[in-house]
Amino acid sequence: MQRDKHMDPKELLYSLQFKEGDFGDIALVSGQQHRAQMCLQKLENHVKNFTFLGYTFWTGYYQGRKVTVGNGGFYAPDSALVTEILCAGGIDTFIRLGSCGALRQDINIGDYVLVTDVLRGDGTTRYYVEDDYVPKTSAIVSDAIEGVFKQAGKVHRGCIWTTDAIFRETKEIVNPYIEKGAIAVDMVTSPFVTVANLNNRKVGAVCAVSDNLITGQMGFTDFRFFQAEMKMTDLAFGVIDNLAKVESRE
User: Where are the beta strands (DSSP E) in 63-149?
Assistant: First the structure.
């Protein structure tokens, strides 16, 4: 190679006909396309920013504030890619609307996990940071999420473990992460928060519980999970309201 880096996120974004200022300052990022579509219904005068490799983002207005929404990846590699692109486009505040498996018996299908810390079991973030790096969500974003979500459901605040191998969630692998403090597991949050941290962006993540590794419950088709997903897209805009109130006092 002659260049220091083969591909730059800003170069890629601008190759998709993106222009400076196309994004809002805050983004609601989902893994599932249908969650992004539910968020999109809340925006006025929205326009499509780009579609790339199956990931699509739109920007519109919510109560006069410019907001970007879209599907940001199912797994660690694509989540890192999309988060890098969004950072390059000027997003300042990231809120992940995800799903997770519970690692405590008292966390039920349809509850919410509010992420404070992340245990990195993925391979992607090893290209970004040292092994002892601990990604952190932003207190201001997490408090805004908790203030809204606790009014609509059970919220468990704590650490999430991100893994690359859903069919290798064995007792031998899972239990050490529980001992380190993880209360939930997913496949996205580690790169999402890590990339945001490295770009000095505010970031928060909340996940609806789809299954429980302790009890063996599978809730992927459970009405409680679908209901939690439906509610979380509405609640996310309440979080934007909460953040606006905090910003107005600063």
Answer: 65-71, 93-102, 112-121
Residue 2 — pLDDT band, cuts 50, 70, 90?
Answer: confident
- CA nearest to 90, candidates 192, 14, 182: 14
Amino acid occupying residue 33: Q
CB-based contact 135:190 (threshold 8 Å): yes
C-alpha separations of 59 from 56, 90, 134, 184, 209 in Å: 10, 13, 31, 31, 28
Furthest C-alpha separation in the chain: 55
pLDDT in tens, 126-159: 999 999 999 999 999 999 999 999 988 899 999 9
Residue type at 157 in one-letter notation = R
What sections of the chain are H helices per DSSP? 9-15, 33-40, 76-88, 139-149, 171-179, 189-198, 223-249
Spatial separation of the C-alpha atoms in residues 14 and 192, rounded to whole Å: 21
Cβ contacts of residue 230 below 8 Å, gap of 6+? 38
Looking at residue 248, what is its pLDDT? 62
Question: 23-244 is classed in which CATH architecture?
Answer: 3-Layer(aba) Sandwich (3.40)
Q: Please enumerate in sequence order all residues whose Cβ is within 8 A of that of 114, keeping only pairs 6 or more positions apart, or say none.
A: 142, 145, 146, 149, 155, 156, 157, 158, 204, 205, 206
CA triple 74-77-78, angle to 5 deg? 50
Residue pLDDT, tens place only, 214-241: 999 999 999 999 999 999 999 999 999 8
Quick one: DSSP state of residue 108? Answer: P
